[in-house]
Amino acid sequence: MNDKESCFLQMNSSSGEHNNVGGNSGGVIGVVQDALYQSVQFVFILQQPQRYSRAERYRSWVHLSGWILSFTTIVSFFYSTVLTWGLGLLFQLLVVVAASFSLFVLLEYEDRSSDGAEVERLTKPLLQLQLTTRWVQLVHMLMLGQWWFALFFIFPQIPLDWHLVSRHLLVPDATTLWKQVKGLDWWAKVKLVYQGIVFVVQLILLVVCLVSYVARGS
């Protein structure tokens, strides 16, 4: 194990300590630190995938895919307005798919009492990715000059995420899932509806952008 990987492992262990001390604020800090750690750990895991479990490799591919799309969405802004709107819409579509998948897994757990560890393994990487890439969406909309969209549709999700994390209602924990599943289900439904609305609004904005682009070219 190299020095850089040891440093990241130490950071991960310290985030675990935050989850157990300091009340709600400590828990929030721990979850955010863990999300940040997991969002960059894929660099080490994908270098030597045989050293890690299937769950860790799955989590790494989720984070890598999310960051590649985030990077291309931001970079495309400097090349084409239509392209960057299209990639932004694709980004939001993946958020909707991730929210749908997370809700489906939670409902399966509630109906069939499946393994809580499996629920955490499948949903946690998707939710962590949303926590770390929410800022990418916010920056992207500000770059496009869509201040009203960022203010009403992206920014409110940040304090909501903070609130849900502090109440342990965002990222499933296998050890306490059995008593939190109702709240997790309810908020997962709310977030899915919200993300669906955001997707529809972005689709309308993309259509407006395309019409404007065609009108200028004619």
TrEMBL record:
One GO term of the biological process aspect: vesicle-mediated transport
Keywords assigned: Membrane, Transmembrane, Transmembrane helix
TM spans (from-to): 61-79, 85-107, 135-155, 192-215
Domain of life of the source: Eukaryota
Family matches, as Pfam families: Cornichon
Residue runs in coiled coils: none
Ligase keyword on record: no
Listed name of the protein: Transmembrane protein
Organism listed in the record: Bodo saltans (Flagellated protozoan)
